[in-house]
Amino acid sequence: MSQVEVVEGEDLSPEEMLKWRQTHIYDAAYQDSLRKDAIAATAKAAVQLISKKNKVRPPKLPEGSYKAIFRIRGGFNASRFSHFQLSKLLFTAASLAATMELCQDVVTINPTTNTVTLSTESYDCLTKYLAIQSLMVNGQEHEVTSYSVPNSETCEGIIYIDRCALRYKPKTPPPKVDKTPPSPKTKPPLPTKKQGPPPKKKQEDDWPSLPAAPPSNKSSPP
After folding, report:
1. How far apart are CA 58 and CA 112, in angstroms?
2. Smallest Cα–Cα separation from 129: which of 70, 215, 192, 203?
3. Domain residues for 103?
4. If DSSP codes are grouped into helix, strand and coil, which group holds residue 107?
5. What ranges does the record give for the region Disordered, renumbered to this chain (predicted)?
6. What one-character DSSP code corresponds to residue 193?
7. Around Cβ 121, how many Cβ atoms within 10 Å?
8. 50-60: pLDDT as tens digits
9. Per the domain annotation, does 35 fall within a domain?
10. Residues near 56 by beta carbon (within 8 Å), at least 6 away in sequence
């Protein structure tokens, strides 16, 4: 047996009921689109933050050494090779024998500019590295363009400079102050007022001379 409950409300026609339903469906869809936009914006901001943190920067190379920069052309992607593979390619192309001094040469990769930087302390090795004209990789020959940086300019174009270092300004040291306490026997000098020259006294000669009185024409009484 069905049960009927009576509640308080207003009677709605089918047309009004359909209009009310469409309005609420539109509101729900609008709220859903706002939520999706907020999620997408948050995800995009997170990706940008991660990309800024993972910004490619070449590591600092040893100071006081010669630097050779190689740009390998012909579709060569330096980021697909390890440091050991690139070192072996450069050592073989330069016809250098494997020695302990050669093992100290440092190879770095910059995926952003697709360049390879090699740091060596031997000038003879540097000249042999710069003489490389091409590299044979997997049976394909790639043209090599290279240049060097002088030993006195090891930071130019290779080692990144921190922004804090660019904003650094040397501070002048503060003046030295004698902090030794004075001995009890010596008393500090009392401050004296600067006294000017004593005032000059006026003498009789200094008074201005007055003109003589004119003679009187009146006769004296008898």
Report:
1. 10
2. 70
3. 66-163
4. strand
5. 170-222
6. P
7. 15
8. 555 455 555 55
9. yes
10. 110, 111, 112
